[in-house]
Amino acid sequence: MKLGGERRRVVVAWALYDWANSAFATVVMAGIFPILFQDYWSADASPAQANLRLGWANGLASAVIVLIAPLAGAMADRAGRRKQALLGFALPAAALTAALAWVPAGASLPAATLFTLAVIGFMAANLFYDALLVGIAPPARWHAISGLGFGVGYLGGGLVYLLCIVAIMHPAMLGFGSATDAALAAFIVTGVWWALFSLPLAFLVPEPARERAGAAGLAGGLRQLRATFAHLRAYRPVWLFLLAYFLYIDGVGTTIRMAVAYGRSLGFAQTDLMLALLITQFVGFPAALLMGVVGARLGPRRGILMGLTLYIGIALWGAFIEAAWEFYAIAALVGVAQGGVQALSRSFYAGLIPAARAGEFFGFYNVLGKSAALIGPPLFGALGVWLGDVRYSMLALIAVFLAGALILTRIDPKEDPTR
Prior knowledge:
Blueprint: H1 5-41, H2 47-79, H3 82-99, H4 108-132, H5 142-169, H6 179-196, H7 199-204, H8 214-233, H9 236-265, H10 270-298, H11 300-319, H12 324-352, H13 358-370, H14 376-386, H15 394-408
């Protein structure tokens, strides 16, 4: 089924938001902020203590999303204000991102506060971004359009990150006084990029039909939440999968957010860590396509288990890493595992849920996915402090990946679409 010209513009405008906000995920959450937080804003602390601070910031943001997202999403659905809600979270978060450039050295608390609030805005906006998909094209096109957004996001985030790395490695060429000045300016670039490429969605993507607002919307949202939980209890494979997903996707999120900070704690150069993340970014998209083929042939559950096994191997290797080339190799492996696990989790879940309630069930799935890294980052940081060596932090990743994989294997094979 081909899309007409007007519908095609709407789809492109929707996908461009992934291009916009992936700059934040790559530059801020995964790349430059963790390095500056340790070297510039937490210079008074040990590497393990800095990781603990960053872990708590990430965990707090995820906890807030867990608390507010289900009700906010239900209210936005019923009131027909998904786009308004998206922009209401995204634009302030973009401004907070840019404001990081003016936080002075040693001010770890203000830096962590701005970061936490920006991450909350990022994750909350993504909930409404996903929900807008159902209104921009016929159901037969949803998977392809979702894949378009996924790919555009990898490319957009990678492009901004590459530009920032060039500026940091060659600051004088672009008029900066130092690499630190260039790194701080990257937050302004990211915030402006995020806001600028949100505009096509703001002007071209239609708002869903309004159902209720005000107090009625709140009451309706609460009723919808109660109904969702009741339906989840009736489908054992679904809630069992969601429990497994909550654990292992937390490990995926922790790897994304804490890998650069961990590498910096071990003494690797900033440029090595930034280049490693760039490798992950550009390996992730083709790896997701390849793992889709694997999932089609072997079944999505087996594909996810393969990815989680790879993640456990990565964590074990990471605990003993010594050389920069090892960090590059691990970055490539993370790209393979990350794209595959994320892509196959969605298709596996789609085969478990009742088709008539797909929107309702996927809403809950998205809440868990966007609140990833609730447990992992604080535990990652705490283990390094408690046990006296940041390398022990890798035990946190092994724990959540292993727990998620074990629960995944307990789904009733008769109801498992991989069998």
